[in-house]
Design goal:
Layout (H helix, E strand, L loop, with lengths): L5 E2 L24 E8 L2 E2 L3 E4 L10 H5 L2 E3 L2 E5 L5 E4 L1 H14 L7 H14 L11 E10 L12 E10 L7 E5 L17 H16 L4 E3 L16 E6 L2 E5 L9 H12 L4 E4 L3 H9 L3 E8 L3 E10 L2 E4 L8 H14 L9 E3 L8 E2 L1
Parallel strand pairs: 1-4, 1-19, 10-11, 10-16, 13-14
Antiparallel strand pairs: 2-3, 2-4, 2-9, 5-8, 6-7, 6-8, 7-18, 8-9, 12-13, 12-15, 15-16, 16-17
Helix pairs in contact: 2-3, 5-7
The structure holds 2-OXO-4-methylpentanoic acid.
Length: about 350
């Protein structure tokens, strides 16, 4: 692959100042970023430049109408020091699906992959060495026309930056099943990784936090009856020894971690059902003692155990994590494959830089 990415390296690397034992999530950025513009129906010259500010006009369309999509992916380091990407092509496909839903152009997969490989290879010194930590990769695209007419922008900026991160949730999360606000309705943009989905979740999440909960568990927009997702992750339950997770219905994110976990579980001999799950079923299973585990799965969150769920004023407290089997197993699988501790039976890992084209340094 050769897209002739022009590389301008930083002269002031900040790498030596990083404390890899104390990583805040998403506030520390690696030395370089990737940028490519879409103008007049064509992708322009791709570049990698030092991480820094960009200039936009106040009339930038994304600021007004939210035409913006993003991805979250991770690079990890194996024990022998190799920088590995996990299923990068899936992230390319998903951001293109998100972009299509918002009438934005698709970035060819070959450019996306070349960009991620080249950027991560260049900044691989920023990948934290410990299992469970990673270099979080944030590809995103936004409208860059200067206009307040309501229509799809004609120009776009696609960028990627990276940040070394530890676990997103430090401890098991307390969820509040939301019965006032909704995240996504059928026909909406719930399946897209659109910036606006996260904006809409801010107030309900803040209100949940003010009541002592970490995140919202979203229910369907029509009846407030069926479980959707958590917003930062997809949700899994273990009922009667069987793993159940909401099916992909158009209103929840098509989680790549979700898909990977389902695959690991099935191949590990666990029974997994993707189907509609009524919140009443969760309440019932908790009451009769068959709800033994719940966990979220996402790129940032990896696997985050659920400590409790509040629904209609009743708190369902789940067994302590030490007594759980499946969530911890799934977490160890995904972290183990990524760190090289476990074999990569599916061929999901690829070394960063392996697809690199002839990038030009200036
Ligand atoms: C991710 O898991 O990468 C996400 O995008 C969730 C969140 C941190 C925004």
């Amino acid at each position: 692959m050769n897209h002739n990415i022009t590389i301008k390296k930083t002269e002031n690397s900040r790498l030596s100042s990083v404390d890899f034992d104390n990583l805040p999530f998403g506030r520390l950025f690696s030395d370089h970023m990737f940028v490519i513009d879409y103008i007049d129906g064509e992708w322009q010259e791709p570049q990698i430049v030092p991480y820094g500010t960009i200039e936009i006009e106040p009339s930038n369309m994304a600021l007004h109408y939210g035409q913006a999509v993003f991805e979250g992916m991770k690079a990890t380091k194996t024990a022998d020091g190799k920088a590995m990407l996990f299923r990068p092509e899936q992230h390319s496909r998903r951001i293109n699906a998100s972009a299509s839903r918002l009438a934005m152009p698709e970035l060819p997969e070959s450019i996306f992959l070349d960009a991620v490989h080249t950027l991560v290879d260049l900044d691989k010194g920023w990948i934290p060495p410990t299992e469970g930590s990673a270099l979080y990769i944030r590809p995103f695209m936004f409208a860059s026309d200067h206009s307040v007419g309501v229509r799809p922008s004609s120009s776009y900026k696609f960028m990627i930056f990276t940040c070394p991160v530890g676990p997103y949730y430090a401890k098991p999360v307390k969820l509040l099943a939301e019965t006032t606000y909704v995240r996504a309705a059928m026909g909406g943009v719930g399946e897209a990784k659109a910036a606006g989905n996260y904006a809409a979740a801010m107030l309900p999440s803040l209100l949940a936090q003010q009541q002592g909960y970490d995140q919202v568990l979203w229910l369907d927009a029509k009846e407030f009856k069926y479980v959707q997702e958590v917003g930062t992750m997809n949700i899994f339950f273990v009922i009667d020894g069987k793993v159940v997770t909401p099916m992909l219905s158009g209103t929840i994110l098509r989680g790549i971690t979700r898909n990977s976990i389902i695959t690991f579980l099935k191949e590990g001999g666990y029974e997994v059902e993707e189907r509609r799950i009524a919140i009443d079923e969760i309440v019932e299973a908790h009451k009769n003692g068959t709800l033994t585990e719940a966990f979220g799965a996402g790129t940032a969150a990896v696997i985050s155990h659920v400590a409790s769920i509040l629904y209609m004023g009743e708190e369902m407290i789940l067994p302590p994590v030490e007594e759980r089997e499946i969530g911890p197993w799934a977490k160890s699988q995904i972290n183990g494959v990524r760190s090289g501790r476990l074999p990569d039976a599916k061929g999901w890992l690829i070394e960063a830089g392996q697809l690199k084209g002839a990038a030009v340094e200036v």
